[in-house]
Every structure is written in structure tokens, then in C-alpha cells.
């Protein structure tokens, strides 16, 4: 943590606080460019043969799991990315906005509970600890999780947080979100 503090003080990293956790990310695109240059130089070195894997060792937990009342893992990040790419959702560091097109999309899917007034945060990013990128939390994230289980797109694996995608879910995620879950599983193996 001392090294991270020095990098943050130097303006190379930005710190995002989420509850009791602190997550660090690159501070700017200039820092990313610098890192990519360093990686190009390092690529000329002999490879170690070991693949660095972040997050849980269990493939099922990395692919999709529950995170409190919403989904997490590679699939959840892909859902957030798909909704951002279609301009359905805009995410900042601490908050998210569902666009009018996004509300229409979710309404057309028949997602329940989103039109009802609530004091709960509607949409916000939740940094995924296995992918290190945001998935959707708040009422929108909870609705995605709830509807995915209700519609039989996902099912629990045992009594832990791991979840599996059903064949019906694979079709639904492909048709509605443009996500090929088989590609996610293959890239994470």
C-alpha cells in the first residue's frame, strides 16, 4: 500500500473508494500510453510461461456469481459493457445513469420494479474484484440478477455464490445483449 500511495501522490494512479475498500486505477490515458510502451519493451523479454490470473481460482466464480443482490464476474462486466456500448447506461466513478433508450430497453424486456419509486440508488458501478472493471449495481443491477434467475437464464451452483448460465440464458444474453457466453467461458478458461 505504500507503493500505491506513492504512485497516487505522483498522479499516476487514481483511487476509487467503495465502502471499506479502495481500488486503484490508472489516472489518465497518458499513464496508460506510458504503461503500454513499457509493456512493448517487456514483451521482448523471454516469457515466463505462467499466466497471471486475478480473482478467484474457480472458473465458475470468475464467469458469473452473485455480488450482494446483483451479478458479478465476466458476464456481469460484459452486460455493463454491452449496455454502455448501446448508450443504455452511462457510468462514472460513483454513479450511473440509465438513458431514456436504456429505460425503454429494460421496459421492453419486462424488467420489474424499475418504474416504482424507491429511495434506493437506481444505477451505480460496482468494481468487479475478479475482472477489475465495473458491473452494474443498484436497482438496475438487482433487476438484472432477479430477472435472470426468474426467467431461467441463470441457476445457482450448490450453496455458494457461483452461478451458471443455462442454454436458455445463453440464447437470451446473445439475443438481448449481444453477448456470446460461450466465448466468455472460453476466454476465461
Descriptive overview:
- The chain has eight helices and ten strands.
- The protein starts with a helix and ends with a helix.
- The protein is α+β, with helices and mostly antiparallel strands and 189 residues long.
- Strand 9 and strand 10 form a beta hairpin.
Any chance you could write out the topology, listing elements then pairs?
Elements: H1 2-9, E1 13-18, E2 21-26, H2 29-43, H3 59-63, E3 65-67, E4 70-72, H4 74-85, E5 89-91, E6 96-98, H5 100-109, E7 124-127, E8 134-137, H6 138-150, E9 154-156, E10 163-165, H7 167-177, H8 181-188
Antiparallel strand pairs: 1-2, 3-4, 5-6, 7-8, 9-10
Task: Give the distance, in angstroms, between the N- and C-terminal Cα atoms.
Answer: 30 Å
| Overall spatial form | globular
Helix proportion range: 40-55%
Approximate strand percentage: 15-25%
Task: Note the main sheet.
Answer: 2 strands, antiparallel
Keywords, separated by commas or semicolons:
8 helices; alpha+beta; 10 strands; two-stranded antiparallel ribbon; 43% helix; two-stranded antiparallel sheet; 189 residues
In short:
This protein is 43% helix and 20% strand. With 189 residues, it is α+β, with helices and mostly antiparallel strands. The longest helix is centred in the N-terminal third of the chain and has 15 residues.
